[in-house]
Each structure stands twice: as structure tokens, then as C-alpha cells.
Amino acid sequence: MRAVLVGIWGKENPKEASKESIKELRELLKALGGHALGYLLQRKEEPDRRFYLGAGKLEELKAVVKGTKADAVVFDDFLSPAQLSNLERELRVKVLDRTDLVLEIFTRRAKSKEAKLQVELARLMHELPRLQGKGKSLSRLGGGLGARGPGEQETEIRRRLIKKRIHRIKQELEEIKRRRREQRKRRERPRHGEELLKVAIVGYTNAGKSTLMKALTKKDVFTADMPFATLDTRTSARTLAPGLRLLFTDTVGFIRKLPPELIESFKATLEEVSEADVILHVVDLSEEGWLDAVETVKGILKELSADEKPVVYALNKADRLVETEEEAKALPHPAFVGGRAVTVSAVKRWGLDRLLEEVVKAGREARRA
Question: 77: domain range?
């Protein structure tokens, strides 16, 4: 896929933030084996209801597509069914939005039955509204005035099948959710005289969550330098001292503009976050827009009603900024996030003892409150 990327910016979405989002969109496209030929940005407070872009910018986009011989255009936002249909008619190439890319990556990464069901649910929820209007465009094959053509009938059948499948998947996920709760009860039952702290690891995708979990628990965890390397929730225990055990749970990574369909479908998995005593928020310090990533994760935690939980920030990948652990301790980054923050390197194992100390302190303080 050779694609041109498109976005808008304005007061609510400054140009630099929009450029960062386009940069991330390029990485998502790359993860699917696609190639970004370039990008187009327009200053616009709200997307045009018909074409997302204004009329003049749309003509400019047409020229860019023709000149670069692109076979796709990817928009850095959610496109309505009408926008998608209008743009494909005008541009005459494949039109995708950010949600399409993320869903495709999730589809390829899903391994377990639960993850596959969650991704299928998200895809179907995304497809359903896009069926609106397709029947009318196909109904010209049908009879006279007021007749329901084959196109409309086919669309209505597809709509009913999707709704039926969504209902079935939700039932299956509810059953998985019930079994997960039972497993969690058994897993989290403290032994006699034992203190148990539940820690949910969250963070932007590719921030190093799995690598950090591997370093903290000394258990084998799959890691890879790619967006959404893993989608399945995993829990590992670490005994710090006699009578003190920590349960670390790794969760799916977050990104800007995470499709609401994915948040909804992954709620069973993300329930681990709301059940935790402490949230361990992993941040990639080597990324230029790391503070924006922090705010994105905070926003999603709020959507999950987990924003009141005690948080410890693991400011990760310090080894990409400095050469020694002593130099890492002197970095000013913790001051920018407030609260409990420790500069670490999961790869080099810098700062992990202090990070564990802060996690235990945060958990104990929350229980006393």
C-alpha cells in the first residue's frame, strides 16, 4: 500500500500535535507493510461533513494522489460513512481512516481466543454504521418506484447478520469475563499472613511495558519493538520479601485517538486496571512527545473510571538518553509528571529496586487511606 496521509489542525489540535499524530499514523501504516508517500495538513477547526477537507484542499489532495500514483489515502481521524463514500468517489483510490489501520494491526496481532473475539467485535461495531447508504447505491438494480432492490436487501441481510454476531460475541466475552473473575479470585487469595498488592501496568504502545514486566518479575514475556506487540493480558507474581507478594498484570497498549470500539470490546481485559491497588504507568522518555503520550493514557484511564487509582510513573528507556545509571538519576523528567516517578531502564535494569519501593509505598498508603 502506497498512501498519502491526511489530517487537520486548529486551536483544539495545534499543528505540532497534529504532526506528531501523523508521525504515529506513518508508524501504524508501516506496521502493516505500507509506505507513506507524504502527508497533507489543513488548518480547520472541524472536519467538513462531506469530505473531511475543504473543497480547495480536496482538489489539492486529488493532484497529490495523481502525481504520486498513490493507491490509498489514510485520514488521521474517524471518517463517517458519508465522508468515506464521498471521498472514495472523488479520489478513486482506497480510503482508510486511523481506526481501519489500528483494527487491522489488532487483527494480525491477536493470538488468544479472547483477543480474537475482542478484535472481531470491534471490527463489526466499526463496520455496522458504514453499511448505511450502501443499499441505496446498489438498489438501482431493483424495480420501480418504492421497490427494494437487491442492493438494499443484501445490505439489510448483512446488517442483521452483523448484529446477530455482535450479540453472540458479547455473550462469549461475558462468559470469559466471568471465568477471568473466578481465576482472579483464586490467584489473588492471600496466603496466611501474606500481604498482596495488585499492580496494573499501563502505558502508550511500545513504551516498554512487557520488557519492564519481564525485568520486574524475572518471568519470560514476549517483547518486540513494534506497535501492539501483544494484546493479551498476562499476570506474573514477584515475592519481594517474606509475606509480601506483588501481582503484576500487563495490559494492551494505548495510542492517540484509540478507537472507541476497541475500548468497548477490550473492557473485559482492561477490567484488571480498575481492580488494581496501584497503576504502574510506563513512559518512553526517548519519544519526543512523551508528555503528550502521558496525557493520552490519563484520558483513557479516566474513560475506564480508573483515574483515581494511585499511580507510579516508570520513566523508561533512560539508556537512550544517557550512558550511566548515575546520569539517569539526574535527569529532570520526573518533575514534569508530578507524583511518584522513577527514571528507569528496563533493558539495563536501572532504577528497578527504587521503582518497586515506590510501588509498595503507593499501595500501602492507598490501603490506609
Answer: 2-105
**Any domain includes 310:** yes
Question: Is 19 in contact with 287 (CB distance < 8 Å)?
Answer: no
Assess if residue 186 is contained within a domain: no
Residue recorded with cell 474517524: 78
Helices (H), 205-351: 209-217, 260-265, 267-275, 290-303, 325-329, 334-337
pLDDT in tens, the chain (369 residues): 899 999 999 888 888 889 989 998 998 999 899 999 999 999 998 999 999 999 999 999 999 999 999 999 999 998 988 899 999 999 999 999 998 998 888 888 787 788 888 889 989 988 888 776 554 444 333 444 344 455 567 888 888 999 999 999 999 988 988 887 787 677 666 666 678 899 999 998 888 888 999 899 887 655 555 556 555 677 888 888 788 889 898 877 788 887 777 777 666 667 778 788 999 999 999 988 899 889 988 988 888 778 888 999 999 999 999 999 999 999 999 999 988 999 999 999 999 999 999 999 999 988 776
d(CA 333, CA 286): 11
Bridge-partner residues for 178, per DSSP? Answer: none
Chain-centroid distance of CA 245 in Å reads: 29
User: Residues 100, 127: one domain?
Assistant: no
Q: What's at 293, amino acid-wise?
A: A
Q: Are residues 339 and 278 in the same domain?
A: yes
Domain count, the chain: 3
Residues 6+ apart with CB under 8 A from 359: 197, 199, 246, 278, 280, 312
Could you list the beta-strand ranges (E) of the chain: 2-9, 35-43, 72-75, 94-97, 195-203, 234-241, 244-250, 278-284, 311-316, 340-343
The 35-43 sheet, strands edge to edge: 35-43, 2-9, 72-75, 94-97
Q: What element of type H or E holds 21?
A: helix 15-31
